Amino acid sequence: MSTEAVERRLDNALWWAKVQSAGPLEVDPDTPAVAGLTRAVSPDGSSVWLVPTLPSGAGHTVLEELGTPPVAVEQPNETARVLAICVTCCWTDRSGPAWPGAIGTLAQVRSVYAGMRGRPEQSSDLTLIIGSLRRLHATHWLLWNEKAGEVRLGPRTITWTPTDLSTLRDLCRHLPDPPPAVLTSPPPATQDPDPLPGPSERPPSPDTALTTPPAPAVADE
């Protein structure tokens, strides 16, 4: 094996160790492509997220090993419900991919949550919503700015397949429409797609990859 090939494998192994430790990584746009990691470009092009490519067949034990379960295990139904609401608020152009989507607001989430429940907002709702937003932010399904009360879809949503997106489109049609977003700051300008190609090869060991979670369910607790 050539020296260049050895160095490339070592570099890939280092990036995968970082992903195992910290989950999806936000890096500079000029960071080279890494085998087995998909590149998710931020809306303003200032950074790129490296997200594990999802091979078929990897199960929940793999996700637990990496510390990134498909859905946060605490109050899974409530968390999945809030994720579905955020998809409705942030995926405004449903003819295209979900990532990066648009900025949604806590006010929108609360409105759709109350509409989904079919009742006026209750005092306990906000606590449940904030807890779910924090869990989804910690697992990179959402990017939650608690100070501004704003939310975006997280980099892991780039791993959703066309089948997942089709299911989510149908789900969004059945959820209440959110009110218009009132943002604390103007949205970032959208840049051209990442010029670097996505990786075409799998990581050396399929046991170190993530699997795609099913589309979020919204069944009652």
From TrEMBL:
This is Uncharacterized protein. Residues 177-206 have a biased composition (Pro residues). The lineage of its organism: Bacteria, Bacillati, Actinomycetota, Actinomycetes, Propionibacteriales. It comes from the Bacteria. Residues 174-221 are annotated as: Disordered.
